[in-house]
Amino acid sequence: xxxxxxxxxxxxxxxxxxxxxxxxxxxxxxxxxxxxxxxxxxxxxxxxxxxxxxxxxxxxxxxxxxxxxxxxxxxxxxxxxxxxxxxxxxxxxxxxxxxxxxxxxxxxxxxxxxxxxxxxxxxxxxxxxxxxxxxxxxxxxxxxxxxxxxxxxxxxxxxxxxxxxxxxxxxxxxxxxxxxxxxxxxxxxxxxxxxxxxxxxxxxxxxxxxxxxxxxxxxxxxxxxxxxxxxxxxxxxxxxxxxxxxxxxxxxxxxxxxxxxxxxxxxxxxxxxxxxxxxxxxxxxxxxxxxxxxxxxxxxxxxxxxxxxxxxxxxxxxxxxxxxxxxxxxxxxxxxxxxxxxxxxxxxxxxxxxxxxxxxxxxxxxxxxxxxxxxxxxxxxxxxxxxxxxxxxxxxxxxxxxxxxxxxxxxxxxxxxxxxxxxxxxxxxx
Length: 430
Known about the structure:
By secondary structure, this protein is of the alpha/beta class.
């Protein structure tokens, strides 16, 4: 089954719900008026598009109808389809150029995160890219075993530690292995404990630091996996994750099993986060790169039952697309820049090491000089103290001599002075 047919089939439940409701509204009107727009907005809200996004769609639709002078309600549906495609456009391409590039996958337990990683690895492997997985969800029971099974199924390498190990250490070892093996894409599984935001935020921060240190110039994507069957709860979940992580894209799983596929519009319009992939089945090849126009087409137009479409291989399509000279030159220029930056990094590291050695030597010299100065000062203080002691002794000798002279003088005076008789008061106070 081809790519566009997969998406169309995956949206059949959503299409039957939302597009069927829109058809019922349009069929019940013979002219276009404000009441028609109100009912269309209500139908979009019921299709899990979201209140804000539904209002935005009907607002644009109203402007187009007036601008084009449309009168027939039957013409409105094609306009809605074009508006939806335009709203979904932008940012859906992954744009991974550097070798290696990093994809960090986050999401709560139960949304199909590990399965999605396995399917993504298989997709890139089919495109001829070398892929390595990092089993950094070390806290969930059997998460490592589950990812290992998917790695074997996809035919890609995996780096894992024991359960309960430090996730950042797993990422570090995976990056080291990717460098050694020349892997083009690193896909990292992470824990999804949204109920404990502080721990999750600290864990992601450690992982970011490892990636920044080991691959400072690499392209990277932080993809949040959401379960389409949860409808608007998926939007709330994305909003909470956006507070603690720099999300660059969304992967929407289980799209084939729900009538709430309209949530894609709400995510893109309300949160301004592009959808990168959609899961439209249980097979290993059922994870599809998101195509806004194919999605809009599948949302409103079902394929006829006798429709035949040749199998489409994504890797074959990309190989057949001619690469422009400008793109090739840009890629070569980027590779040269990255190589030059790596050389600069090595040179800076050597200079830093040399500077540290010089600082250590200078530190030793300073400590030695300080010790010498300290000894000299102590010796000088000792000599000064001795001189002071000698001067004090000399002064004390002189003082003693003066005291002895004064005592002799007083004794001589007392001998020469005649004794006086004491009177009555003298005898009384003797």
